[in-house]
Amino acid sequence: MKTKDEVILEIRGESIGMITATSSSEEKFQNQTLRPILKFQNDLFLEVFRNYAIKQKGVFFTLSPEKKMSYVENAIQRDIKFRNSLKGMVIGIFTISEYKEYILNSSNINKRMMNLLIERIKSQIQLFEE
Predict the structure, then answer these.
(1) Which superkingdom, per the lineage (predicted)?
(2) What are the structural domain ranges in the chain?
(3) pTM
């Protein structure tokens, strides 16, 4: 029987992005762990964001495309509860060794994680048209 970590790595897929000998440990973690998780969880992130926007009185859906971009950024950067929820959705798909690496530099990895997620949602903003 496969271990949980083996199954997690199998369903997430391969690294996304270049990893070279000069890549920093954070860059390696981003490309080997964060990007595949964000891609794997993409549909869930979109639905979670849609639900968040609805719960915030639906104002998001009336905004211009430029203001929607700012809204996404502000929601993820400033709403700590929402941010922590998104972070948990990523961390929950770490292997044990990835988690151990994460806790050594969680602050910088969290910044990368949230920036990648913001860009991912912003790049799919058209999916939120009513």
Answers:
(1) Bacteria
(2) 25-128
(3) 0.90
